[in-house]
Amino acid sequence: VSLLTKEQEQEKQTTCTFSFDQTDPSVFLARKEAVEWILKVKAHYGFTPLTAILAINYLDRFLSSLHYQKDKPWMIHLVAVSCLSLAAKVEETQVPLLLDLQVEDAKFLFEAKNIQKMELLVMSTLKWRMNPVTPISFLDHIVRRLGLNNHLHWDFFKKC
Amino acid sequence: MNIKVGVYSSGRSISDLRLRVSIHSSESSLMEKYKLIAKIKKGVFQGLCLLSSQTVTLKQLGFPDNEGVPGSLIKEITLLQAMRHANIIKLIDVVNHQEQSSIVLVYESMETNLTSFIRIYPKVMKIPRTIKELLRQILLAVSYYHSFDIVHGGIKPANTFIDPATNTLKITDFVWPRTLFNSNTEDPNEELGFCYKAPEILVEHKQFSTAIDVWSVGCIFAEMVTQKPLFSATSEFHQLAKIFSIVGTPSEETWPGFSRIYRYLHIYSHCKPKDLRKLVPGLEPAGIDLLHKLLYMDPKGRITARQALEHVYFQN
């Protein structure tokens, strides 16, 4: 129940939800590219699925705010790098250096201090709420409540 | 926001562009939202929220700018924002300070801390019920953040605030004492924080368990009764000797394995534990028993905040 209330609160805070039909196709495309890049890096470093989910959650929440500027093509890349770096810091035990994070055909290479600036901007835009309710939170809750905590179940869970 | 972008194409750097990014941000700067009133200590200010005209405490946290915002800080602030407890000072806002790579934490502000409360209202503090009620609130706050696996690490009367009108107690300073980025902000004129440090921290063993907070609560408990610090050494160096002189020098029975943790144990003369009833006069027997359990030397044997709340002392 508390997960649901938290989720509802979360939705209220995201004033304009990111809906793809109304969005400019160029933003849609840029977002698609960014998500693909995040997933590639996730695979490259073997991050947990939650890291990728968090990064994409940050990305979408940030894009749905009014900060995004279409005329700066590099900007969404910087946002993607920052979101992934934030997600990795929240979720992973081993976090690659900011420069090493920019693998898998990154079109641009950003300096650490610029990524830091964007990290701060993303976090203040998201009101420092970096631990949102995700589909995995529900799955995790259900698995725990059902007592499905043997090795096989966790193995399956990790693959989700 | 100025951003320098290196554009790379087919692996070679074509140009280094300096672009000015004008971000139409809803993010208002620190000065638009808050007015600084006074400096409390290095990096800590008293301010006024211009929107709600509420007084607030502003704390600036800086960090090196080579690897972005430190992960520990992100996790901690996320957690602090989610924490809601009547006995914990609320984190109201987090503001970016663009010029310096730092952030500013905005907390609700309270005027009277426990040190000054004892000084201003010595008679109120003599009432056993007041002490019991304040101790209960400290323990409620401590057990609340221990349930999140957060160690405070710096509980002391100066971080413990009281509203004299309602006797509501609130603890503050979560991020402050532990973050590495501000290791030298301890003001020498300020109250001596080491008086409240647990022995395992003093022997520098990187034992960062929740038990260290329980020890500090024990120190505060005794101080509320006697109105002076229990272990008041002249320096951090002498603190351990002071503790041993009152609680007794650890032996293999009272703290198994301590001689292995601390190589210099043989320097200290052997002391027998003193009678807490004499050192903390006026405290009822159940309180003395609780104090013994809070100030148990071996952190493994020390009572937890949750267990302490169920102690007989609180049962009436």
UniProtKB/TrEMBL annotation, chain B:
Domain of life: Eukaryota
Alphabetized InterPro entries for the sequence: CDK (IPR050108), Kinase-like_dom_sf (IPR011009), Prot_kinase_dom (IPR000719)
Keyword annotations of the record: ATP-binding, Cell cycle, Cell division, Kinase, Mitosis, Nucleotide-binding, Phosphoprotein, Serine/threonine-protein kinase, Transferase
GO CC list: cyclin-dependent protein kinase holoenzyme complex; cytoplasm; nucleus
Family: Belongs to the protein kinase superfamily. CMGC Ser/Thr protein kinase family. CDC2/CDKX subfamily.
Pfam families reported in the protein's UniProt record: Pkinase
GO molecular function annotation: ATP binding; cyclin binding; cyclin-dependent protein serine/threonine kinase activity
UniProt protein name: cyclin-dependent kinase
Start and end residues of each Protein kinase domain: 34-314
PANTHER family: CELL DIVISION PROTEIN KINASE, CYCLIN-DEPENDENT KINASE A-1
GO biological process, one term: regulation of gene expression
Keyword Protein transport: no
Record field: catalytic activity: L-seryl-[protein] + ATP = O-phospho-L-seryl-[protein] + ADP + H(+); L-threonyl-[protein] + ATP = O-phospho-L-threonyl-[protein] + ADP + H(+)
Top-level class of the enzyme under EC nomenclature: transferase
